[in-house]
Design goal:
Largest sheet: 5 strands, mixed
Radius of gyration: 16 Å
């Protein structure tokens, strides 16, 4: 949950630094690809294909597993999980694993990351290089933010919009101006390490999916 302050800026300077990876998790059994990632305040949830894993960030152990399909982003609104699955977004009760509602995904299966902020879902569009704000009840697109690279995971934290990129075998985690899409800050991932899903823990860390590596990585968030 976060408070948005969407204001324009002029001539922003892009701060660039190496991403500080503080811990790696996985790969986990029968979970060859990490797609979406979110954080519920206690566990890191990772969509790994036919399951959603709740991972204890302290021990790295899988605390729970829900039999829900997920091939892209995951989000948490404080009560429910949202999971991109092919051309739909499922709203899931994390206590039971039951899908209680579904809406069309804006990219009709071409979607990437997803985050929740202030009553909206924010859905990455990989090759279209966009982030869409959508109504979580209807799926209606409310606005679109342009990026200049392929968009992977999306995260809002402390009023800041961050997203992952993965293009030409290079990835970064970047903070952008939500009004203009201008890149304000970049955390460059090491060569050969990609970012699929992305979510903040609301404090000092991002959790980044590592795609087909099957790994999940904790990356320090600059303050």
């Amino acid at each position: 949950m976060t408070s948005l302050d969407i204001t324009s800026t002029t001539a922003p300077q892009t701060r660039t630094q190496a991403a500080e990876i503080v811990r790696e998790y996985g790969p986990y059994p029968d979970a060859p690809i990490v797609h979406g990632v979110t954080h519920d305040g206690q566990h890191v949830w990772a969509a790994v294909g036919e399951r959603l894993l709740a991972i204890d960030p302290a021990s790295g152990a899988v605390a729970r597993s829900l039999p829900r399909h997920g091939d892209a982003g995951t989000a948490f609104d404080g009560t429910h999980l949202y999971q991109l699955a092919e051309a739909r977004i499922d709203k899931i009760d994390p206590a039971t694993g039951e899908v209680i509602a579904s809406i069309p995904a804006p990219g009709q299966g071409r979607d990437s990351g997803m985050a929740w902020a202030e009553g909206s879902l924010w859905v990455g569009q990989f090759r279209e290089r966009k982030i869409l704000q959508i109504d979580p009840q209807s799926g209606r697109v409310l606005r679109s933010i342009e990026s200049n690279r392929f968009v992977t995971g999306v995260s809002w934290v402390d009023g800041e919009l961050w997203h992952g990129t993965w293009e030409n075998e290079q990835s970064d985690i970047r903070r952008i101006d939500p009004a203009s899409g201008a890149v304000l800050q970049r955390l460059e991932m090491p060569a050969g390490i990609g970012v699929s899903g992305l979510e903040s823990d609301g404090a000092e860390l991002f959790y980044a999916g590592g795609g087909a590596s099957g790994k999940l990585r904790a990356v320090r968030r600059p303050r």
